[in-house]
Write a structure and sequence with these properties.
Two copies of one chain form a homodimer. Chain A is an alpha/beta fold. Chain A has ten helices and twelve strands.
Chain lengths: 271, 271
């Protein structure tokens, strides 16, 4: 883990707010403007791992070599580790209690040959229980957490708990992303706020944390995720991709306050 | 628990598929056509309890009396127990590992004075870890589980694990509900399948379990949930309410195969 420059966990408190979609697309956006093979994703959702499916890596396995276990390699050289690679079939549930899950996450962090990475994003399952707690305790040197919410009050209420959770564990909150923020009918252009809009920004202000941006509802996000194509690759000119790009800039800004690694990668690409 | 005629757990595998919305509205639909005060909800989501908010019970407390702890009372006499009633503030996270969560759930089941109930719905958090496992082991005489999914393949993949989970624990699968199934623009009537459509039914066939019905996307569901009004009460003449009613009929059919309790409640109401 000491060759991994930056580590960021993506958390939500509430499930189904699109945390994995956000993780995968942020990772791809970083990789697109970085060095090949220097971004990784640890899918720490033991019960419902979705990262491989969304990156088109279903059916791959982790390769084992003398130095340890190697991550699967996705688009743009993305290094991916997920429980999904270890399951015998799609239908197999992982019926584990906390201590086993902590052991699995510890192995994912220590026994995997991640190599040199500029950034590792850790996709955490919802809640403030075993898995998030394990990751926070096993990676005390984490840069911070990104919190994903949808605009609804119900989601905000749960996500506030995630902010308190991070603070109690003394981890920086990089900022809040509001996903599924408004929907525009592709036929008539009418805007329908299916899960309301603006709740994430309001919550950020209330809690005194940065607001990173909004990602609108777009049926292509679901379609792309289902066929294993990250949305920002499948729809580079969409409003959603624009949002992701803006959010990545803000995260870079946060990381560069403390280090110059990612800005160096950036310069190399620009030159 | 022996005065509770029927016990059904609502599970999903994946978070954010609207499991709590489904639980609350199914409970209300049962209560509407049953005897006052004979339906209960146990919110077994320790980290992100949302049932009280959706029933307008925020800020209530559980009352303690000589026989034990009494549930909060919601609309139509709904008996509700949730971790949320025990937290000092909205922002307080429950940073607990598995064993503590199991202890809390055991107390919710054994120390609460539920009284005589026709039906207890148990809203489980996503995944196949500590909480679902605890509930299944603590309530071996459960009637069965209802599985909620959204139509996307990513959700189906995770939900299949929930079906296997129930089967491995020898619990009946009552059926699958497809939530967030298609969206119709309120302005022009164009149908947009934001999370696709039909995936839940397809999955049910593949796995050989009953399909209970589809609930369309409706912004009112989010609005009603946020203001603490169950959707089927706030919008009794909507397509969504029609779906919930149809689903409840199918569940009644399942329960009546094994007992006559709910059909009796039904007759009383009709006369």
């Amino acid at each position: 883990m000491n060759k991994v420059q930056h580590k960021i966990a993506v958390i939500s408190g509430k499930g189904g707010v699109g945390k994995t979609v956000v993780t995968v697309n942020l990772a791809m956006a970083f990789a697109k403007h970085g060095i090949f093979g220097r971004v990784g994703i640890l899918d720490a959702d033991i019960h419902g791992p979705c990262v491989p499916k969304m990156l088109g890596l279903k059916g791959q396995n982790l390769r084992v070599g003398p130095p340890g276990i190697f991550p699967a390699i996705g688009p743009l050289g993305m290094k991916v580790v997920s429980m999904d690679f270890l399951l015998p079939s799609q239908e197999s549930p992982v019926i584990w209690r906390g201590p086993l899950k902590m052991a699995a996450i510890r192995q994912f962090l220590s026994d995997i040959v991640w190599g040199e990475l500029d950034l590792l994003l850790i996709d955490l399952p919802p809640g403030t229980g075993d898995e998030p707690l394990s990751v926070m305790q096993l990676l005390p040197e984490m840069d911070g957490v990104i919190i994903v919410t949808i605009p609804s009050e119900v989601s905000q209420d749960v996500v506030k708990k995630a902010v308190t959770f991070a603070r109690q564990l003394d981890v920086d909150v990089i900022g809040v992303i509001e996903n599924m923020s408004g929907f525009v009918c592709p036929n008539c252009g009418t805007r329908v706020d299916i899960f309301k809009v603006g709740g994430g920004e309001k919550m950020s202000k209330e809690l005194g944390v940065s607001f990173l941006g909004r990602i609108p509802i777009d049926p292509s996000i679901c379609e792309d995720s289902d066929r294993g194509l990250p949305f920002i690759v499948g729809h580079p000119n969409s409003l959603g991709t624009e949002s992701f790009t803006g959010i990545v800039e803000k995260i870079r800004g946060f990381l560069n306050q403390g280090s110059r690694c990612l800005s160096i990668s950036r310069e190399k690409e620009v030159n």
